[in-house]
Amino acid sequence: DQQVKQNSPSLSVQEGRISILNCDYTNSMFDYFLWYKKYPAEGPTFLISISSIKDKNEDGRFTVFLNKSAKHLSLHIVPSQPGDSAVYFCAAFFGNEKLTFGTGTRLTIIP
Amino acid sequence: GAGVSQSPSNKVTEKGKDVELRCDPISGHTALYWYRQSLGQGLEFLIYFQGNSAPDKSGLPSDRFSAERTGGSVSTLTIQRTQQEDSAVYLCASSLSGGRVDTQYFGPGTRLTVL
Question: Chain A, 25-84: which have a CB under 8 Å from a chain B CB?
């Protein structure tokens, strides 16, 4: 039972354009969300997070939006750069330290 | 400083054999996590160690899986009588104190293939 879903396994975006990665969750108890980025043969690295008391968090080119009523979050990358090509995982916490991860979206930035 | 390291990077084994996977967390990190990623799946939580507390083993898929953390540092994940469905990338992560706002730093993983 996949509580965190990333329905797009892959996404291709032209360099310089906006990349939008989406994530849906089913458990309304989740109250802290994170995005991780993973390059091949490396472990995931933390990118950005958002608490459920907020609807937006921004860090440089990366912005995460949270829509609690829709149980949906998205990661916006603008402008997209070739180094952004990676697999992106969204993840969620509720009440404890166990992260629940989505299946990932492979982002390819086309030069 | 050094990040999380894992060994071996790749392991191929025959069905029914036991395997041990090792994780060296970042020095000073009290929390240590094991995850696995099977083909086409997200990262699946396996076990969590925090300081001297009893580990949270709620994610271990069967009693063939066990893990220990010696001296609050190095951890070993052991899979007994491996099955083909155990084939996955096993990832270890550590964080400073285990809180939700504490960043988890991941190692590169061990790719386990069970023939």
Answer: 32, 36, 41-46, 49
